[in-house]
Amino acid sequence: MNKSTFSKDSLPHWLRFFIITILSLALGSCGQTAVVSPPEDAGDAVNVYFTGGSRDYKQVITAVTDAIYAAQSSIDIAMYNLNLREVEQALRDAHKRGVNVRLVVESDALDGWVPQSLKSSGIPVVSDGRESLMHNKFMVIDKHQVWTGSLNLTENGVIEDRNNLVRVDSPSIAEYYTQEFEEMFTAGEFGNNSPQGNPEEGRFKAGDIPVEVYFSPDDGVMDILLEEVASAREEIVFLGYSFTSDPLAQALVEKARQGVRVMGVFDSDMVIANTGSDYEWLLGAGLPVCRDGEAGLMHNKVIIIDQQVVITGSYNFTSSAERFNDENVLILDDPHLAELYLAEFTDINAHCLP
Prior knowledge:
This protein is of the alpha+beta class. It is 34% helix and 24% strand. Helix 4 (113-120) links the parallel strand 4 and strand 5 (125-127). The longest helix is centred in the first third of the chain and has 16 residues, at 13-28.
């Protein structure tokens, strides 16, 4: 069919979702690549990467290390945990080339071999030094490129676990993340010791894609998520590694009662380990939720609304994420990105426990 006479945007949402679902399952059975980019008409300001399943994990490592090797002036990383040898080598090389490399980690990860190796190389490393978590996972390169999502730069994170990683090319968004980094690295302000944020300041565009950026606990993230859920008209799909937020669960049940399709996948281990997991509540309310059945963690923290809006980041759907931990959240308003996340949801859902 001639491209000039056919646009996938002319297809109904349900047919587009069906097509991307079939393609996702077919690719998964033959060794699907780990790197998935938006269609060319979405531009290249935002790119998405997924890990886990049957993918070649080396492609994600290569994408991250290529970006580090290409850095010219600065690399700021706030990472809950990291132990990838390839990333350690790339950061050491960047430091030797004169790139200003800085690292913030969760205090429990400070004694890990990568933070200690980087520290011994002269790279400054700061930890939060408190009980609550520095749970961010983001990297800012040359003040124009941001990498974030649910992925810690660890072996399990890229090889076994289901994660998503988003690369955003935008100087204004990079500056916004840098401000958050400076709070932690320079001012030593973590969690609920951080200054109150102004959520209105976190609205940007990356190319033609509207992007909202929020940090927790600064910005009152849960209220923002509840507003997004309340706006749903047709469908809400979620992937929740740790889900104990009763306000969010109640909002999903209410939308289902209003006729909105609500579907979700929980991480199996966290359903058992979490005190107050909302899995049984949602299941008992008649929502089609399930527990993932793969060996690795279902580590995503994602909500997809009306096949249009994607919410992702490090923020688990928990009180700790809302009140105590350092977290970051992206809201991406783009149907092509939503298609990619819906395809990932479908692949994960296909592996749910009976």
